[in-house]
Amino acid sequence: MTSYPLLFITAAFAAGIAVAPHFYLYAREQVFLLLLLFLIASLLLRFGRTGQGMIVSLLGFFLCGTFLAAEEHAVLPANHIESLAHRGLLRIEQPAQVVGWARAPSVSRPGGESFDLQLTEVRQAGRVLPAEGTIRVYHFTNRVTNPDALPLVVTYGARLRLSLQDLRGPRNFRSPGAYDYEAYLRRQGISFNGLVREVEDVEVVPGNSGARWRAAVYGLRRRLLTYLDQSFSGARNPSDRGIVKAILLGDETSLDPDTEAVFQASGTYHVLVVSGLHVGALAAGLFWLFALLRLPSGWASLGVAAGVTAFASLAGAGLPVVRATVMVLIYVVARLVYRKRALLNSIAATALLLLALHPSDLWDASFQLSFLAVLVLASIAVPIVQWTLSPYRMALGDLENREKDMHLEPRQTQFRLDLRTALDYLCDPARLPQRHWRLLRFGLQTGASGTLLLAEALVFTFFMQVGFALVMAIYFHRVTWSGILANLFVLPFTGLLIPVGFLALVASLISVQAAAPGGWLLGVLVTFLHGVVNWSASLDWMIRRVPTPPVWLTIGFFLSLIGLAVMVEWRSRWAWLPATALVSLAAVLTFSPFRPALNPGRLEVTALDVGQGDSLFVSFPQGATMLVDGGGVIPIPGSPPPRLDIGESVVSSYLWSRRLQSLDFMVLTHAHGDHFGGLLTVLENFRVGELWISPQPSSENTDRLLRRAAARGVRVRRMHSGDRSEVQGVEVLVLSPPSDWNPPRVSNNDSLVLRLGYGRRHVLLPGDVEARMEQRLVKDGMPIASDILKVPHHGSKTSTSPDFLARVAPRFGLISVGPYRRFGHPHAEVLEALQQAGVRTYRTDADGATTVSTDGNRIELTTYRETLRPWPPFQAVTSDE
User: Fold this and answer.
1) 168-185 confidence digits (pLDDT tens)
2) What's residue 382's pLDDT?
3) What residue segments make up the domains of the chain, in order of their start?
4) Residue 771 — φ and ψ, nearest 5°?
5) What's the rounded Cα separation, in Å, for the pair 341 and 328?
6) How far is CA 858 from CA 601, 737, 761, in A?
7) Percentage with pLDDT > 90 across the chain
8) Which terminus of the chain is less hemmed in, N or C, by CB atoms within 10 Å?
9) Would you tell me which CATH number, out of the four given (1.10.8, 2.40.50, 3.30.910, 2.60.40), belongs to the domain 81-210?
């Protein structure tokens, strides 16, 4: 602890933040307890009780973490926009006029623009209120239907008056495993989202806010981005432009989803996020330049500090680059005051400072990835290399100087002697001409040095991937070992690309012609980089999509890392024990031989919250599984495809939260986007046994799904009324459409209607059928009576006709519907009809993912209700009737 005090202090502080939601004291009590603990620690240290004093000190830092975490969002000013909404002075989901200033320039997004507005005033219903807080403003434009529409361009610091269509709080998909979008915005200080319909709804008012230096930085950034756009406008691969802008200036708006997916799959996505790699490469380049110019150490350190700070501002000052910049600045301060520069203490000091400012960053995946990877490299990879490989590589220098042998370690001296003996034998002048043996001697010596350098690089890339592995599995359900090989090329080329890119950017400020050579070399480097990434992403056998790892694996993984770090620090011969444990756990994480989190002996149907769409998960009594529809975003004609992939972000994440890696059955009820959209991704992420579709007309959506299923070796079955299957004691009846169904185009009435029967209980899943098909089901005497009804077509007025509802006679109704009633779903008349029929109704927009399960007799119903506890985290409603 005496060697790395900041490491233990930061660990205690972070532990306090972690338990803060479960540990609360009033502020005065915490302050009193803190003062008391630090007083006791001071007395213990004063009287030589060092060990006990340190323990009490760590307890004090633990309490500091809980206190700051509790206070981060505990008290808001009375005029904060969230306070106004809470007190009823501001009505959410209603039009409003707001006044404020832009915290950053507007950002182009697919289909529109967005920017963050710092509020000063809110007007609604004739009431004018002073306000503070930040909202994110969106403006969407259909460039196809309205090609002359102007983009919304907002500059930093501009004072604006906006007429918002409405204000909405950020909303998560309320299904287990879904991304916590609300926490993401909260960490950025954003309280609400606002929507402006037209550019004319944004009025620039006199005056400017914000800092002048920041306005100058944003102006320079805009100029440099324009240069990159022009330089790469004719690139052979259009995605190269987005890659260069992301690497050099942290601008990710030009990255297309396919490029992002390739970098993620290859384990090299970190090069697209301006972070430690970029700041470190820039700092190393500046140190080298200042050493070449023979600047004194102090001036060189100040120059590096200024350079990386300017770069962080120019790159947008995102959290990853700020973290890396703070770490470099702490290192520079240590150089200036001539302190011993312990890497682990610098990392810990950076984490402690950032967590003290924003405790909630502890739960940010980017924060965890950054610090875990750096800690693993600093505490394990660097000591292993220094302990094993570096001494031999250093021993290769000046090999012919025998006097140098006397000043080296015995193992280095012996290595030099053995190498000289081998070289003398292989390069005997009596057997080879002089020019040949000299060349051979040089080649062998260089090869030995290169081999050792390559081995060092492999150690670093291996442990970097190990540092990423667990967090990537938890948050992104991906384990990518191909990154070990890819990063051998990607990291050095990125390290070269960054200084070359900045030289080109600086030259572009003089003239485009001056930047031409650097721009050409930049294009060559990014082309090679992209090629390596594509090759790495093609190694499917080294890339795995994995379910959420169990708690025991997470704990074991961290304990193995800590144990290995300690053993390496001690240079213990027992280091192989935690190393073996770590490799074993990494193998378990990769292949994930976990039992799915299902309920044996029960039929279970879960309506997922996928917004305005349908996706239902069915588990059968002995573990068979079925996915009925995959949700999806309804496309707006003429707009670019949505970046949000419901199949990845919601449906797959839910299935992984249940520790599934395969599905026995996938069902597409009909080919509308809000049912079909997520299935393509699910097919990629999971092994699927059978795909069921109805005799619906051919469509682009259906054809894409069938091609993907054929490529994945999935059996396709076209189902129609009268088909019957029995799955583990559950009768699955197909009630619609009829076998001769052949409409001219895709419609809601194409929907497969399924009835699941288990014991005395039945569940009816009618897709989006409308009144016409409902009447056919009633008229033909189909067995539709059921205990649970998935209300057809999201509760639309076109469905749930009186005769149909009377024949089904359900006790529970599930409505899969999105928030804000974009299409008027569910209709008030349908809700009233369900209530009058005595149906207990649950909606995914209000209740989140809703699960009904039965043992064939008793019915249990549970809802998600926005909780972060493990599934199932709710109180059950039960029925034996």
Assistant:
1) 888 899 999 998 888 888
2) 92
3) 5-71, 81-210, 271-363, 402-454, 553-591, 603-635+644-876
4) -55, -40
5) 11
6) 12, 31, 8
7) 50
8) C
9) 2.40.50
